[in-house]
Amino acid sequence: MKSRLFIGLLTFLVPTFLVAQVDEQLAAIQRTLSEKGPDAAKQVFDQSTAPYLEGKEYLSLAYFIPYAGYIAEKEASSFEGIKAAEDFLNLILEMTADPRVRRQAHLEIHTYYLEAGKNQMAYDANQKALAYTFQIPDHRPEEWALIERNLGVIANLLGTPEKAKEHTLRALKGFDQDSETSKESKFNVLNDIGVRYWYEAKWDSAEYYWLEGIRFLDEMEPSLTNTHYRKAMIEGNLAAVYDVKGNPQESIKRVKSSIDLNQYFIENAKDDPKWNRAHISLFYSIANLAAVYKNIGNYQKALQLHEYTLREKEKRFDVLHPEIIETKIHIGQAQNSLKNFALAEQYLLDALDGIAQNEGEFYIQAGDAHYTLGLIYESTLEFDKAKVHFLRANECFQKGLNENADYVYLGFLGNASRFFSLHDDAKTALDLAQKGFDYVTLIDGKKTVAGFTQVLQLGEVYFNLKEYRKAKDFADESLQILESLIQNTQGSLDSVRVEFDKPQAILLQVKSDYYLNQDPTVSFLESSLEKLMSAQMVLEKRKNTLNNADDISILQSQSQELLSFIKKIQIELYDKTGDENYLNSLLAVQESEVYAKIRAQVNQAGWVAFKGVPKQILDKEALLKSSLRDELEEASSLSGFLKISGEWEDFISMLKKEYPEYYQTRYANISKEYIDIPNALQAVRYFFVEEQLYALVFSKGSKKLHPLEFNPDLISKLSENWHEIKVICTFSHELYKQLWLPIAQDLEEERVLVIPDGILFNLSFDMLLAEEAESYREFAEKSLLAKHDIYYNFSLSLNRQKPKTKIAANYIVFAPGFIDNMKEKYRDFVQDSSLVDKAYLSLLPQPFTLSLAENTSKALGGERYILDESTPEVFRQKAGNHKIIHIGTHAESNNLSPAFSRLIFAKSSGQGLVNEDNSIYAYEIYNTDLRAELAILTACETGKPIYQPGEGMISLSHAFTYSGSESLLTSLWKIDEKASNQITEFFLNHIKEGLPKDRALRLAKLQYLESAQGRTLSPQYWAGLILIGDPDPIDGLNPNRSWLLLILGVILASLLTFYYLKK
């Protein structure tokens, strides 16, 4: 679900002829209220207004209306604030019928209504002000245009964007009619045009007008209002543009600039009338920053920012204020992204309750909340509840958009129609899909790219409903639309654009045809495979033109669906023909799928630096990708696109030649020729084709495919029953029968490489029981641990022989420890409690890790960085070029956003909200020197193991591999610190003796089982530690003690000489 971004709009609050004396008096009230409180501010208010009351200067008096409200609110509540402001308004209305005074009085009270979160009342006040404007005989167009702008802004806040657009268009017309339009109005015209283009999804045009707005601000009076308040708004708008254009670094830079400008204004302009609105602007900027982090997959960071915003808003606003409600919806959406469904539900239902108690419509906000609740209940398999909320979301969106559609609503229609088609509600599914189709074809026409999308969506709904004939008809029609578009645009860039839309239509066509064909022949399957492979080639080309996180995610989903069906066809061809070429091709597809995920995760993180690749090369790569996208989306010249495409191909050829490792990581195609399996290798490659699990066994130079009967629920239930001996023993034996027994006769050697897939990444094969058992201690004799040296990898292609790294230094360890004293120092450093990183303070201390770090560094003669010394910067500088890199810290293997799997280090400072991050993320590891024969990372935790299992581990492992680590000792789940360090100590002792790494780990676990007692014998404590990568021994680990032997020899010779001389 895409996030809505906040676009900055300002309401005009005061006319251009505000008297300087009044301005000074308002500033004095504001300053006194901020610094001394309501009682002192009330005195200043009474002193300032008394002369105007006495002199019947009602226009001047009108400007004080909102301040009556601010003072009463500070003294009591927003309810009292509204009452005080309205009392002062009514006082003025009773004293004069002058339409100019009445106009200004209603404009002024609307500002207080906005502050109090009474948006409908603010809208109504502007409507009255507009009516009074037209009663002024000498009114200028700018005066009513200002109010139309206000109405447009508030209509947006009320969740009625179409009404907002109508008001804005009328405002622009008024400004154009008035030759004396003020500079402020001209600036806002530029902003408004940018906003119009934004909502029409014309990002470059929006960017142009907002950049023009910044240039115009630079020419205006250098007041804090212009240099900070207004500029902050435009910077925030530009951040939204760069986010949707796929440039998260620039987006983050702009939104942080917006935050800094707003914060400076708030701190230094306490007497400015816009001081209160600046807080709203700041909140919007932080919300946009959270949206950027969400879009690049850093959901946890997005949640932290939303939670910070909520805490700050709660200090300023009533619990039912729309700003509070908006942020609760954002938190609910963030919690949903993190799969924290119960928390997400709580926030969203609370927000909907707040909307129900508020005046105004808030249709769009309610639609967003119901939409997210529908997605939550779909995920938790509460389908009846999901149906209710999807239907309510549809009602809200229809009312808010007035039968029109924006990109969020069209996305909703697609998701909701898919949901209903999968849950036997054909009528609702087709109604929703048809609604999107009718809207798009009415606006854009059927034979357009947008029309193609809706036709295809209808076909997919019919496919889910198992109406394969209709699904194929729509797939055929969608392809006919594309062919027609290609023919009509032959020789132009549009033909290239349209070609990129083919793969999904081809997939739907082939799948529908397949299910219509009850007994497909070999020739039919080969023809289908050829179509699918051509579609996959188009998707691969398309990847080079994308840098927007949402687009990358969608393309990755499409690619996985396509690859899954390709494997299905290849398996069926192998079964029918016995031709191993199909099996080899399937292996290549499986490997491609692994690398496609890794590449998508890295791309989603934005600009990523890679070790060994100069910055200028990476910058050129980013520029060429951006140029390809720009040419494809905006230009009209095919020659321009072909020129950039040629430059891109030349660049890729250069990478392949000069930076082969980087090329392999980012761009190389994994062909069946590339997968070279050594004859001596004994390995099991598990993989899923749709729901069916297969095991491909490599042994003695041959391979054999085994279909397996597998119940994935057994793995999910293991973690729920770690201390139930009977349950664990039963499940472990059952998993052995399903996963290992069918292939056991083919695995004669002790050493076995296991390459899991899907949920198997959550399983330690060591704990599979070949026989029934009744106690945990029996695992030492009856499990695979007793028979095999098992090590793992995530890719067959990584088992190609590589030259060994020659490293002199033995060992380096990083162990922050996270003891209480460290956390207290950090808490003291950060003065503002709202900025404290609560997650850091909650990290468990690691005393056993500190002890192991000290002992091992002494035993191996290595370097040690512990406590406050163990920071991200020290790690980056010191870690590489050691035989063993021991990372004794907390780590998170993030299955939801694998590129944001991370290592957590000590805090070096407390720089507040957005500046400091004591983590190194998986995508940052690519640019870190980690040359080592072994990296140890045993305190790794997996956040959501049942969602996209193994993705976080794959991402971390690949990053370590690229950065030079030949193997990684890590954990599949959170393991008791004492137990993991005991096993690691045993393991290192065996490594020091020269044993292979896989054998050393096996013996360490067996040694642990000999000494452990009670519940610590459970596989929870020992089975999760696994070795990924090269299993060979580490040579030369014993510290060089030849100098000691030499000294002992000299001493012995001296003693003997002395002895003989004495004789």
Please give a structural write-up.
The chain is α/β, with parallel strands linked by helices and 1063 residues long. It folds into 7 domains: 15-139, Serine Threonine Protein Phosphatase 5, Tetratricopeptide repeat (Alpha Horseshoe), CATH 1.25.40; 146-180; 182-296, Alpha Horseshoe (Serine Threonine Protein Phosphatase 5, Tetratricopeptide repeat), CATH 1.25.40; 301-382, no CATH class; 383-609, Serine Threonine Protein Phosphatase 5, Tetratricopeptide repeat (Alpha Horseshoe); 683-793, no CATH class; 811-965, no CATH class. It contains 45 helices and 15 strands. A hairpin with a 2-residue loop joins strand 1 (683-689) and strand 2 (692-699). Helix 18 (363-379) packs antiparallel against helix 19 (383-401). The radius of gyration is 33 Å and the shape is globular. It starts with 19 loop residues before the first helix and ends with a helix.
What descriptive keywords fit this protein?
1063 residues; alpha/beta; Serine Threonine Protein Phosphatase 5, Tetratricopeptide repeat; 7 domains; 6-stranded mixed β-sheet; 5-stranded mixed β-sheet; 15 strands; 7% strand; globular
**Count of helical segments?**
45
The share of residues in helices is: 55-70%
Largest sheet: 6 strands, mixed
Tell me the name of the CATH homologous superfamily of the largest domain. Answer: Tetratricopeptide repeat domain
| CATH-scheme architecture of the largest domain | Alpha Horseshoe
Topology overview:
Elements (H helix, E strand, L loop, with lengths): L19 H16 L2 H17 L3 H5 L2 H11 L2 H18 L3 H17 L3 H15 L7 H17 L3 H17 L5 H17 L3 H17 L4 H21 L3 H21 L6 H21 L3 H18 L5 H16 L3 H16 L6 H17 L3 H19 L5 H16 L3 H18 L5 H16 L3 H21 L4 H7 L2 H15 L5 H22 L5 H29 L2 H25 L10 H19 L4 H21 L1 H7 L16 E7 L2 E8 L2 E7 L4 H6 L6 H15 L1 H4 L6 E5 L23 H4 L6 E4 L18 E5 L4 H10 L8 H4 L5 H13 L3 E4 L5 H7 L5 E4 L3 E3 L8 E3 L14 E3 H4 L8 E4 L2 E3 L8 H12 L4 E5 L5 H16 L4 H15 L7 H4 L2 E5 L12 H21 L1
Parallel strand pairs: 1-4, 4-5, 6-7, 6-8, 8-12, 9-13, 12-14
Antiparallel strand pairs: 1-2, 2-3, 9-10, 10-11, 14-15
